[in-house]
Amino acid sequence: MSKEAFRNQAVIVTGASAGIGKSLALLLADQGAKVAIAARRADRLEQVGSECRSRGGEALVVPTDVSDEAQCRMLVEKTVAEFGRLDMLINNAGLAVVALLREYPDLHLFRHVMDVNFYGAVHCTYHALPYLMQSRGRILAVSSLGGKGGLPFNTSYTSSKYALHGFYDSLRMEMRRHGVSVTVVCPYWVVTEFHEAYLNKDGQPRGKQGRALYTKKMMTAERCAEITLRAAYKRQRELLMGPGRLLEWLKLIAPDLLDWLAVKAILEPIARRTRAGKIEA
Ligand SMILES: NC(=O)c1ccc[n+]([C@@H]2O[C@H](COP(=O)([O-])OP(=O)(O)OC[C@H]3O[C@@H](n4cnc5c(N)ncnc54)[C@H](OP(=O)(O)O)[C@@H]3O)[C@@H](O)[C@H]2O)c1
Fold first, then answer.
1. Is residue 132 part of a domain?
2. Mind listing the pLDDT tens digit for each residue in 116-143?
3. pTM assigned to the model
4. For the chain, what is the domain count?
5. Residue with CA nearest ligand 1 atom 32
């Protein structure tokens, strides 16, 4: 991908106030793109917007809660009014609740995860589609390896990411003759604020505790953004990071072994640490 691959292209990035979305916006600004950046925290978005401009890109700050369809429609309309077109939609905004299903007090939080991670992408995609068809543009969705295999403590998160794959696998076929590509990327562990923002069963962020499992080998948000953007540029259909391919093969040939590994590696250690009072349920 050339350093100017996205020059002058109009791009919406959701979840751009932090982490992978912020890195994607900055990378696009480096290339001279026009980025509309969206998330709920306006102050954080303003900072990202200034950084984009100082790197040579144009930036439009649109505070948006993607779980609200009307706000997503406004995001698209404001972007097209400002830049005159839309070449790429990046659906990246996301969050996770980490709790056993039987311990959720009710299903309010479960629905919230679906509303942000799944419907947030559906809302933006639906309203952006007419403009993307005009530009024969690109859709890029940031899913997760949790969209390819189950994870204990993550029923709502994995459901929302699995749903994204069904949605985009179908839409990719519908968009084939319109020249709109659909790329779905599945990162593994990336150093961002994601694990601090993890909500517990009562909707409280885990804070620094969420970083307890971080290692030096984990991918940076900048690196994740680079390979993600390259996949979208090449109009690749899917990109699995980390052990993604291995996970797909294991699921095909030994699904029970994969379940066993997930229970041993995730469910049992977390249950042990919770019982020992080292982390809250
Ligand atoms: N980090 C990882 O290890 C990892 C691994 C696999 C997949 N992913 C995926 O990567 C994507 C980005 O996550 P990240 O790691 O960059 O996490 P992050 O640093 O926590 O960033 C999440 C972004 O989503 C935004 N967001 C959350 N709720 C929103 C809402 N209702 N409306 C609009 N924006 C909202 C947040 O902004 P506001 O709070 O300002 O709204 C923030 O900008 C997510 O879809 C996540 O599932 C991450």
1. yes
2. 999 999 999 999 999 999 999 999 999 9
3. 0.96
4. 1
5. 65
